[in-house]
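Q: Structure tokens for this one, please.
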Amino acid sequence: MAARRSFLHLALLLIGLAGVTAARSAEREPIKFPDAQYEPVDWSKLDGWANDDHAAAFAAFLTSCRALNGERRPGRETAITEELKNVCQRAFAAIPLEEDGARKFFEDNFRPLRISKLGDSDGFLTGYYEPIIEGSRVPTGEFTAPLFRRPPNLVASGRRKLGDLFPNKGVKVGRRFGRRKIVPFYTRGEIEDGALDGWRLEICWLRSQLDVLFAQIQGSARIRLEDGTILRINYDSHNGWPYTPVGRVLIERNIIPKDEMSMQRIREWMEAHPDDAKDARRQNKSYVFFRIVDLASEDEPMGAQGVPLVPGRSIAVDRALHVYGTPFFISADLPIANEKTATKFRRLVFAQDTGSAIVGPARADIYFGAGAEAARMAGRIRNPGAFAMLLPRALDPALTARDQPLPRQRPATFAQLDFGAMADPTVDEVPLPQPKPAAAVGPARKPKARRMP
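A: Here is the predicted structure, written as tokens:
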């Protein structure tokens, strides 16, 4: 009897273990990205990989690892999340690294996958930065545009970490006959016209609604107050209305040609045409609310992953597709120095932020730092680029690439400009890799390679 009971216990244990193994296998199998093509490539096929500063990239990777392993911003668990955590444990154990050890670490622990939107040969890049803006604690004749914190009756949905609201609609909650009613929240135009006056939500006042708009586009700002104090603010939530890029409005109205579009051109036109700018600005009904963050004057802002952004190494991605901390190697020629000169950007970057306008598997917003020079640099970037996602080696990329259609051969075009989560420039001297003769980027991509997020 005892022997039979022991056998039964053993059988149940084996069945349980088999079930767990099968569940894990089933959970890991579908590493798929909708509307995307991707294929494994050799490290030697990544143009500029050997010349990157892998030690600097490794340091940026460790910041994501601290968030992943410490679960400072827990998110959805996927097979990639699980394996990234395992790679992170090996990264901490590998410190201190020997010379060229960082490059070897990435090559030993990851496999590069070329990734792009289905039918496109490349991805698309923009840049963002943190503006430094003059402001005041109280309204004055010079500072008249309030910067608001989140209204208390703005209702968030689910567990979205950025305070995203009900799909395509923000809400304010009132009472009618003792029951709560939900109605659309105020648009940008209504808020600019004073809909929130008297709510006591003002964080500070800026010179104009144009300054407010640019802080909202970037998602964070450093406000230099009248006594020299630097007030740090960061994205908290938005009113729920869909984001409409102002640049797109100006292109459609034939005000600024598509090939001349930049954040600097937008600002110049709006400052010269304040009445027309007001109407153009209000075509974007989306409105961002901020919170004060406890950061020193020179600290970099926090990305959506909950880690400080690294100029030239942090990117915002489509969070619906990608896991925070995922490495990407990006090869592109970007107008960093000026509009007419292309700088070779060949870098290992990391998904540490997101934005509502960053959508797609090969779409990234590169963080360039803070200040006017960063703004000029980021504002010029609207360029194609080759994306390689680094997939942990424990995950077999052959499973994801199998049976996907080959991409159509056509030049990469971008029919729609997207001034995303943030949209302006680069940091004071972001160190870039030394130029090197362009190597072949490799064959046309197969199935699949996003935003962050």
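A few notes: Residues 10-29, 156-183, 399-453 have pLDDT under 50 and may be disordered. The radius of gyration is 24 Å.
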